[in-house]
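Work Package 4 report. The design task specified in the project plan requires that, given a folded chain encoded as structure tokens, an amino acid be chosen for each position. We show below one input record used in the internal validation round.
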């Protein structure tokens, strides 16, 4: 049996974790500012967005903690390490986002029935500053979108961006026209948009926890590509699963023409799996067509 592991992903995970930590601190800080601004202006939209940002700041902090946990080395009790912490964080964040959407939807319906007076111009200015901060945080997270944990955090920031846009737009409309029902209508539309992304991420993280084949990958396609390597006759018992938010693992039995050429064949298989599918954690067991070398 031969194994191949590459650890270049640790540097990327460290950067993603640091970005999440900075994003968490910035989001929580401005959430407090928005809460004060909402109380001062009487804007329920700002108070709602502030609560959203504070919740999302906690979610970003959870993502940063998960990224740190995922970098811990394998141990006797956790031979694969703790990379699944990132997937658990993604699951919790997606679930929390759905709870937030339900709360915001209910609040929007209440505001539609009983609009309240708002200092629209001041609320719009505070929301504009929040929008700028959220766009900055989203830009910092964009390079890490292949990481499930970072994508979950980015989903929360997207919710903040849309919430800030809604608060900004409603503040401006209220300042110009006095029509206060624009804010809850915009909030309801935003809830629907975020719900689709949240449900998709929830399904993907559950799929990863159940050791399903990662999104966008096909066992048949991977096996076919491996079988095209010179010296490989066939591939069976092929398994592909998610180790962490950004790492995919593969194990397989490879039937080869000659065990004497296995080292060369192994290197070519590793390179092809890395280049075509981004799979770096590979465990392969060679067999001959007549007799397996080792069989479990």
């Amino acid at each position: 049996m031969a194994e191949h592991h590459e650890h270049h992903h640790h540097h990327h995970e460290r950067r993603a974790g640091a970005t999440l930590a900075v994003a968490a601190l910035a989001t929580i800080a401005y959430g407090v500012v928005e809460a004060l601004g909402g109380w001062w202006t009487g804007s329920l939209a700002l108070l709602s967005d502030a609560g959203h940002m504070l919740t999302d700041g906690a979610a970003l902090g959870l993502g940063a903690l998960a990224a740190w946990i995922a970098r811990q080395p394998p141990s006797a009790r956790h031979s694969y390490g703790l990379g699944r912490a990132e997937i658990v964080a993604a699951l919790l964040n997606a679930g929390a986002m759905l709870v937030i959407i339900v709360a915001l939807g209910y609040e929007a319906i209440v505001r539609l029935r009983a609009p309240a007076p708002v200092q629209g111009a001041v609320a719009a200015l505070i929301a504009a500053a929040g929008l700028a901060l959220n766009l900055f945080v989203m830009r910092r997270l964009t390079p890490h979108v292949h990481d499930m944990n970072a994508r979950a955090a980015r989903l929360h920031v997207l919710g903040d961006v849309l919430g800030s846009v809604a608060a900004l737009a409603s503040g401006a409309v209220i300042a110009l026209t006095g029509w206060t029902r624009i804010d809850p209508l915009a909030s309801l539309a935003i809830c629907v948009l975020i719900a689709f992304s949240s449900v998709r991420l929830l399904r993907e993280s559950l799929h990863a926890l159940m050791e399903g084949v990662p999104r966008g990958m096909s066992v048949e396609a991977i096996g076919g590509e491996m079988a095209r390597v010179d010296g490989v006759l066939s591939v069976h018992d092929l398994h592909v699963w998610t180790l962490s938010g950004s790492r995919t693992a593969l194990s397989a039995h490879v039937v080869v023409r000659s065990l004497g050429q296995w080292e060369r064949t192994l290197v070519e298989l590793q390179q092809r799996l890395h280049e075509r599918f981004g799979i770096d954690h590979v465990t392969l067991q060679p067999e001959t067509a007549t007799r397996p070398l080792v069989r479990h």
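Residues 235 and 254 are 5 Å apart (CA to CA). Validation will be extended to a larger panel in the next phase.
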